[in-house]
Amino acid sequence: MAAAKIKSTALSVTHKCRNILAAGWEAHLNTIKADAKGSKEEVYTSRVHYMIQKGTPYLIVPENDMHNINIVIDERGSLAVCSPIRGRVASLLKSLKQMPPRVAMTGDVLRLKDSKVPIIADSLKKAIMKEHEAASAASHGVSAILSSAGATCRSRSEGLLSLLNEESSYSIFKFDIGSCVYIDSFGSSHNIELDCFEPPKPDLLMPFSAKLIDGINRSDSRRRALILFCFEYFEVLARNAVMLSIDHHGFDVLAKVPERAVLGNVPHQYHWKEFRFTFKEPSKDAEDFCRTLVELEDEVLQSVKSYSGLG
């Protein structure tokens, strides 16, 4: 099979953590409240933007946000980044009493030297524009998926385009990571060894992942293809299936499958189960990912036709 392995390789926790950081741009920042007398040891939380450049997280914080004052007294902070899951998948996870996976980090929120601020700001803007230009130049197939995503789904460049406005007033801070934890959908925590952790590099797939996933899940034909994938590679008869996550190495599907074999007239009991599909070759960008997915759909369809007598 040209597109995927039959026996899929599960992603490591470290890789899942890196994918979440690469796909997102919004985070919740926590700092210690401060006043003229110093730290109150109370926590202040607000939503901020972030981007990772050359392995370093940079926080983009409005100038009127209290974080600007808090870190003058106490640089300690924590950052929570949630997987940018939207649409059907978010609703499904909620119905299953699960949460989107997330990454929690502690560290120091550091001010940049005045001479470095415009350099980092320019680098961030160039990265945003590169993603925006890639979306504008996307092929018809990729554009169709992106445009079919729901209104709540945005690519990172769409979420950060406002920062290109010269009138925007914000501060840029460096977040020096001290610890990192991956929290899965069931709430279990997994510590990440920073010595082995490689931060995400700039790419043209993960920033579009939320829109690609929702666009795929809004297509009945593509969701039927996910059901065929489960049958072809795992020999399970799924009643329903959705794309759960994507990355350079493949994708994860959440499918509603029978719990176990039943006898007589006892009706099937179904539960939702996750399946991993791994590409033979990593996808470079959104174009490459979508092209590989279409090839996989065609292969599976031809395979099913060949032994069903429809070919």
UniProtKB/TrEMBL annotation:
Coiled coil: none
Residues of the CREG-like beta-barrel domain: 15-195
InterPro entries in UniProt: CREG_beta-barrel (IPR055343), Haem_oxidase_HugZ-like_sf (IPR037119), Split_barrel_FMN-bd (IPR012349)
Superkingdom as given in the UniProt entry: Eukaryota
Pfam families in the cross-refs: CREG_beta-barrel
Name of the protein in question: CREG-like beta-barrel domain-containing protein
Species of provenance: Urochloa decumbens
